[in-house]
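Let us work through a complete example step by step.
Step 1: write down the sequence.
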Amino acid sequence: MASYRRRGAHAAARGHAAPFVAVKRLPHVAVGERAPLKPGTGGTRVRVSGLRARAPRLKLVIAAAVAVVAVAGFIGGLSGDASAEPTVQAFLLAWGQGRYHTAAEMTTGDPATVTTALRTAYQQLGAAAFYLTMGRIRQGDGTAVASFGASVDLGQDGAPWNYQGLFRLRKTGAGWKVVWSPSVINPGLRPGLRMAVVSTMPARAPLLNAAGQPLAVPSAAYVAEVTPGKLASPQATAQAFGRVTGLDPNQVLGVILAAPQSAALKLLTLDPASYARLSFGLGHVPGLAVHAVSDRLFDSLAPDVTGSVGTEASLALREQGVAYRPGSTVGVSGLQEVFQRQLAGSPATEVIAEDGAGRQVAVLARWLGRAGTAVRTTIAPSVQAAATAALAGQTTPAAVVAVQGSTGHVLAVADHGVPGLPRVDPLGGHYQPGQAFTIVSTAALLSSGLQVNSPIPCTSSNQVGGQTFTNVPAEPALGTQPPFSTDFAQACGTAFTGLSRRIDAAQLTASAATFGLGADWKLPLTAFPGSVRVSGGDAGLAADTIGQGGVLVSPLAMALVAAGVDSGVQRPPTLITDPADPPSLTPQALSRAAQTMGTLRALMRSAVQSGAAHQADLAGKPVYGQVGTAPAAPGSQLWASWFVGYRGDVAFAVLELSKSPSTSAVPLGAAFLAGF
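Step 2: predict the structure and record it as tokens.
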């Protein structure tokens, strides 16, 4: 039986009884140490380790491949014939130690031919290490048959290739000789054949939308490939390719040598930006051809959710210590990174024998791979497309998030960046919501007894707790004593700062928690559920009431607030349906008083019908919402403009960042809602 250990461990030796052979078990000995057998048995047991010359390095932790031979002493024979065991032992030791010429001289073949065959056999496979174990010897009248176990580490992070070898010996005037044939190396070889490794990565499985369609779209890609048998110098090609791409040239060389020689071998797939950066250097790699293809790999309909994918030269693979393998992909961010193992699958590998023309003659070993498995998201195609289309051409950074009120399913996540300004992070960003937060503070005020027809002044400024608050942007003239419903519809900040005296910090934070702000729900991606930390004193509470001070949210968190008003239930968000995760939180009713939710809905409807969000009063299903404006974060020079609401079962949050407080997110929200 073959005996195998990973690098740094010794191969165990085991003898097997055979006719005319006496077998003795021996204790382990140190590398290179000779241990005598028990008295009267004769022979020795030797374990040797050494370096294999010019082996390509396929494992980053090893400078060169290691060959270890473990042999057990065998004594036997007929009529006093000398045992063939010492020759078998010496041949395997020399082969395993990389003393190929010495091993070749123990055969009946031409020494130069045999030396080359032994030296290149496993090199052609790109092997990182091989281990040999002597097995049975059957000896007859001037002939013998020796078996051995081989364990070859193909250097591809998979199981070793273990097989049983066999060779014949003939007694000559000069002693026992190994009868040479390529089958000595492997039973599947014969003259004119070489071994090669065919390793095939499965196509990366897709991330799917809610309808089961891929979120990735066909996009331009560039494939760099070689035909190994046509390379004037595989070493020169590997070195040049490694310099350009940053890949380990020894690993690249190992793959080139191990591959079938007549077929095109894909070495690297690049996205257009990477190709533009590397194209000049790739053009000077000898024997390399590059051609454009279309692939579902680099572009996505929902990049904020899916993230990006890297290929063979990705720094992420090298940082993880993953050996170079053509066809490899790695999720660099987003769901592509979270579900890397599930999406990527594992390679199928074959060790084949091929003839001089590169034709496959036999399969010597086969390892089945594992196809990647798709991951289904909650992204709704029509809603996501509407969000993307609405953002196209924006002159300011902006984002749209939509969720389904009845389920908490995330329907759309999109953002648009502008050079020179920070991008909006739709899931994980921390922003002040401004008067959009008055949805939450109004719920607290209504619970405290405030009536929608109560006259509440909307002044240009209001002083609370020694701090002066002004309406930004300025409010239209609403009269001296407009009803609270008008203050809400126009998002009058000074009215709410005055009303903050009717509630306390505990009531405001409790209302925020009721809407899920600060909840401990989980998504597979980094997401911010919001936080409300009420500042001390009347001024701090007033600032928090209008979504400033200690209030920070993400667009996702505000979309969930609107979804709660729509459905009357606070639900945690869900982004993945297959594989399904257990819900992180149990849905909770938003208020014991259904009247409070009904009043909030009426107020949000009036904000769209006749208030600050009137540009979103679209035909068809009614739109409900609230607007807000605030510094993007405390001390920020950018202004956050919000439009938060729902239409039908789709709740949404739209956020724009700009240098002007007069920017309104309502037109962008209206364009989004009109798109589906």
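Step 3: interpret the result. Residues 235 and 253 are 6 Å apart (CA to CA).
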